[in-house]
Amino acid sequence: MPLNDKSRPGSKPLRLALFDCDGTLVDSQYAIVAAMNAAFVALGLPLPDAAAVRRVVGLPLVQAIAVLLPDAQPRLHVTLADRYKLAFADARNRGVHEEPLFPGIRGALDALESAGLLLGVATGKSRRGLVATLDQHGLLDRFTTLQTSDTGPGKPHPDMVFRALAETGVEASDTVVIGDTTYDMLMAGSARAGAVGVAWGYHEVAELTGAGAQRICETADQVPAAVLALLDL
Question: Does the keyword Hydrolase apply (predicted)?
Answer without folding.
Answer: yes
